[in-house]
Amino acid sequence: MFERFHHDARQAVVLAQENARELHHDFIGTEHILLGLLAQPDALSARVLGRHGLDHDRARQSVVRLVGQKPEDALDADALESIGIDLSAIREKVEAAFGPGALDRKPRTNRRVHLLGGHHVPFNSRAKKVLELSLREAINLKHKHIADGHILLGILREGEGLASRVIADAGIDSAALRREIVSELG
Question: What per-residue string of b and e applies to 116-147 under the rule 16 or more CB within 10 Å gives b?
Fold first, then answer.
């Protein structure tokens, strides 16, 4: 399916994973996909949503308000300390060996785009459904590719994920937004 994704749609998926990591979430949900779409201000989805008053910053604030943001050291330090593990001592030793901020660096990739650090963040079932629905939306519109607008249509069609709630909380009418995106996609 991903071979049908245009650059902007692929980039939205990559940015969804980055947003999930930045929020220290253990999954990619529909909200992260929405943030990935909005992180590309020149792409169709961000332009259309922007006309309705929803941009990346506002959506991110809404996601943090609804879901929260795990602190960087989301491990239960007290539980680890009870078995003799001191997180601050481990951080100091890692930074002494690899340099300041070594645990805070973004994951790197090799030439084959395999992660050298960090971890893979899996899609939850609703996010997977959104990506499936984006393909169906493209097929319904008789398009041979999937653009970022098709992904936004998938979010609207799925209708129950956190992304839909963020859109609704922004006062955006989903039906009107859908018509506008279909029109823009041609």
Answer: eeeeebebbebbebbbebbbebbeeeebeebb
Q: What confidence tens digit (pLDDT) does each residue in 64-94 have?
A: 888 765 554 444 555 556 666 666 677 677 7
Count CB-CB contacts under 10 A for residue 50.
Answer: 14
At 113, give phi and psi (nearest 5°).
Answer: 60, 40
- 3-state SS, residue 146: strand
Please state at what angle helix 148-158 crosses helix 30-38, rounded to 10 degrees. Answer: 150
* 125 contacts: CB under 8 Å, gap ≥ 6: none
Tokens of 179: 């018509």
Distance from C-alpha of 23 to C-alpha of 74, rounded to nearest angstrom: 11
Q: What percent of the chain has pLDDT over 90?
A: 32
How many CB atoms sit inside 10 A of residue 103's CB? 13
Return d(Cα 68, Cα 81) in angstroms, integer.
25
Rounded-to-integer distance, Cα 136 and Cα 37, Å: 18
User: How far is 176 from 48, CA to CA, in rounded Å?
Assistant: 11
Q: What is the pTM of this model?
A: 0.71
C-alpha–C-alpha distance, residues 145 and 3, integer Å: 9
